[in-house]
């Protein structure tokens, strides 16, 4: 494969960020020796690699194209040396096979985060796949959340039936065959139901019950911008809903799982967009408060918008209907289960206010700034 490249690195510490990203930007984190600390799934996918082939290796040791590795290294060194944001561009391949990428380097204390963005001509099909993946993840966590509710809520009545069975056993004539068969049937039925819950319900939801997260430095502003861009492209733009980002964050970072955090932010924004009336605004506020990074998504809920089957949605119809039902014991809406699990896996939390027609709703996620 022939390659060619050109690169430009901006001087100074400009705190500007591209807002028109389509959400399929890859993130690579390097230490001062240009050793890969982490590479998210998007970055690996852009170059048809496995993240495992990158982690722990220097840029020169990775299977990345040489010109790309060279520009990544140049931007990383410049960002660390100048303690400011740097930008670069690179093209790899030749003629019709040429692929172009924009690079933003954000320095940390002793690492640098590189945001790699494909050119606009390459975004279409990858963007569709990206949104489909995000919707699938949201559906997976929603399924397991519902199963956990089913498991919990079924055990209460079954325990009661089991206890009353023992009460009846002491009251019923031991010499009455019909009564003894009835008691045996009750006990057998309870045991079968408990076994079904353990084997089918609890086993099925085990995939997200103990969620593992891969912690690495995550640049917050690009993460917010990517999530907002994906939400706009997947549902907000088609519904005429605007997403307004209000944050002083620029080069701040947290220790977190970039992919899981992006999924969380996207789901919050996409849900807010599809629950809002046409031409409404979704307001996003994000800041670091003490030791926590907090992001609030505020919108006015519309039952008509959630139930409108003719408009684009990211959640299934039953999940949208359930979101409007009164919350039992402060439980979250089923469709937002991913937000709760990811925040808790990071040592943080997720909260939502009641969702009702014409109600002002706030979705809030809190993530510790430092690692767990």
Sequence of strands across the biggest β-sheet: 2-1-5-4-3
CATH topology (fold) name of the largest domain:
Heat Shock Protein 90
Task: Just give the CATH class of the largest domain.
Answer: Alpha Beta
Give the low-pLDDT segments: 1-23
Give the CA-CA distance, first to last residue.
43 Å
Secondary structure tally: strands: 12
Structure in words:
The chain has three domains: 26-118, 2-Layer Sandwich (Beta-Lactamase); 126-209; 216-368, Heat Shock Protein 90 (2-Layer Sandwich), CATH 3.30.565. The relative contact order is 0.11. α7 runs antiparallel to α10 (337-345). A hairpin with a 2-residue loop joins β9 (281-289) and β10. It has helices at 41-46, 66-82, 123-171, 177-204, 206-209, 220-239, 258-274, 303-307, 317-323, 337-345, and strands at 26-31, 36-39, 86-92, 99-107, 111-118, 216-219, 242-246, 253-256, 281-289, 292-300, 349-352, 360-368. The strands form three sheets. It has a five-stranded antiparallel β-sheet with strand order 2-1-5-4-3. A five-stranded mixed β-sheet has the order 7-9-10-12-11, covered by helices on one side. The protein has 372 residues and is of the alpha+beta class. It contains ten helices and twelve strands. Residues 1-23 have low confidence and may be disordered. It is 44% helix and 21% strand.
């Amino acid at each position: 494969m022939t390659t060619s490249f050109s690169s430009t690195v901006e001087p100074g510490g400009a705190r500007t960020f591209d807002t028109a990203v389509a959400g399929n930007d890859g993130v690579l984190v390097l230490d001062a020796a240009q050793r890969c600390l982490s590479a998210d799934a998007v970055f690996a996918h852009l170059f048809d690699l496995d993240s495992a082939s990158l982690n722990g290796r220097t840029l020169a040791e990775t299977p990345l194209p040489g010109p790309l590795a060279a520009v990544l290294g140049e931007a990383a060194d410049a960002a660390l040396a100048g303690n400011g944001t740097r930008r670069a561009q690179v093209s790899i391949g030749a003629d019709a096979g040429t692929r172009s990428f924009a690079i933003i380097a954000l320095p940390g204390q002793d690492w640098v985060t590189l945001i790699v963005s494909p050119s606009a001509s390459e975004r279409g099909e990858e963007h569709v796949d990206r949104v489909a993946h995000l919707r699938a993840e949201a559906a997976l966590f929603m399924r397991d959340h519902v199963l956990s509710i089913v498991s919990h809520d079924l055990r209460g009545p079954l325990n009661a039936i089991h206890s009353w069975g023992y009460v009846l056993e002491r009251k019923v004539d031991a010499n009455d065959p019909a009564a003894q068969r009835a008691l045996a049937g009750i006990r057998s039925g309870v045991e079968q139901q408990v076994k079904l819950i353990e084997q089918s319900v609890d086993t099925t939801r085990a995939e997200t019950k103990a969620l593992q997260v891969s912690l690495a430095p995550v640049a917050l502003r690009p993460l917010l911008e990517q999530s907002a861009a994906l939400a706009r492209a997947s549902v907000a733009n088609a519904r005429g809903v605007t997403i307004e980002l209000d944050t002083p964050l620029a080069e701040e970072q947290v220790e977190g799982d970039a992919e899981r955090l992006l999924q969380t932010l996207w789901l919050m924004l996409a849900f807010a967009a599809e629950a809002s009336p046409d031409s409404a605004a979704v307001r996003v506020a994000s800041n670091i408060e003490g030791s926590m990074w907090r992001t609030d998504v505020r919108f006015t809920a519309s039952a008509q918008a959630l139930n409108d089957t003719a408009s684009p949605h990211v959640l299934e119809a039953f999940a949208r209907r359930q979101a409007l039902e009164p919350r039992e014991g402060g439980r979250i809406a089923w469709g937002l289960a991913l937000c709760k699990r990811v925040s808790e896996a990071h040592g943080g939390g997720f909260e939502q206010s009641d969702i009702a027609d014409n109600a002002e709703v706030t979705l809030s996620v809190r993530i510790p700034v430092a690692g767990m």
